[in-house]
Amino acid sequence: MAADEGAEIAAQRIGSGNPVIGKEKAEAGRCQECHGADGNSSDAKIPNHAGQYAAYLVKQLSDFQSGARRHEIMTIMAEDLSAADMADIGAYFASREIMQGDGAGGNALGRNLFDNGDQGRDIPACDSCHGTRGKGGIAGNVIYPVIGGQRKIYLRSQLVGWKLGDRKNSQGGVMNKIAESLSDDEIEALADYISGL
Questions:
Q1: Contact in structure between 193 and 111 (CB atoms under 8 Å)
Q2: Contact assessment for residue 53 and residue 143, using Cβ atoms and an 8 Å cutoff
Q3: Distance between CA atoms of 39 and 20, rounded to whole angstroms?
Q4: How far apart are CA 36 and CA 56, in angstroms?
Q5: 155-170, pLDDT tens digit by residue?
Q6: Which contiguous run of DSSP H or E holds residue 142?
Q7: Do residues 125 and 114 touch, judged by C-beta distance below 8 A?
Q8: Which of 25, 40, 102, 121 has an alpha carbon 20 to 30 Å from 74's alpha carbon atom?
């Protein structure tokens, strides 16, 4: 966990699952083969989960089970998981040190959109939901995932998926609405900037 993160936020991040049991389940379920033992994947197309909110990971696994989110491999990986399995695996990845970028994302366009959005196009600043440096947060019953330090190719693919409507599982479809307003260059700039945070 982040050294500067308070106990209450750390508890929110981990949720109700058991990270020790979750580590065993993540190993047995082969989660770590793709997402890394420390939650940082070695494949640019596979997302990091290090320090991700457990409740967000649980929602994604539930969405893969229900078909609300589609992915050929993850649908199979999630199909037999119980609610307790998901909570424990989520807690394990949440307990890892929060993903960090390499600081290389100095993209000015990406930074401006991340910090300021574009009010003329009803695009909110990314940090208004995803928090300072994209490290996520919880507001009421909505979990805003950690995106700062996420894999660039993965970030780009998700923004494109929301733009095209291939992915539709954000709260109230907010990410579809935002991504529809972004140009290809803006998507590239955001993926570059956010991955470096």
A1: yes
A2: yes
A3: 14
A4: 18
A5: 999 999 999 999 999 9
A6: strand 142-144
A7: yes
A8: 102
b/e per residue 73-97 (b: at least 16 CB within 10 A): ebeebbeebeeebbbbbbbbbbbbe
Q: Is 30 left (phi over 0), alpha (psi -120 to 50) or beta?
A: left
Q: Check residues 2 and 197 and name the one with the higher pLDDT.
A: 197
Residue-wise pLDDT tens digits, 12-49 = 899 999 999 999 999 998 999 999 999 999 999 999 99
SS3 state at 130: helix
125 touches 117 (CB < 8 A)? yes
Q: 49, 21, 52, 56: which is closest to 35 by C-alpha?
A: 49
Q: Residue 98 is encoded by which pair of tokens?
A: 């929060």
Chain centre to alpha carbon of residue 72: 18
**pLDDT band at residue 150, thresholds of 50, 70 and 90?**
very high
Supply the pTM of this predicted model: 0.93
Identify the DSSP state of 123: B
| Burial call 114-152: b when 16+ CB within 10 Å, e when fewer | beebeeeeebeebbebbbebbbbbbeeeebbbbbbbbbb
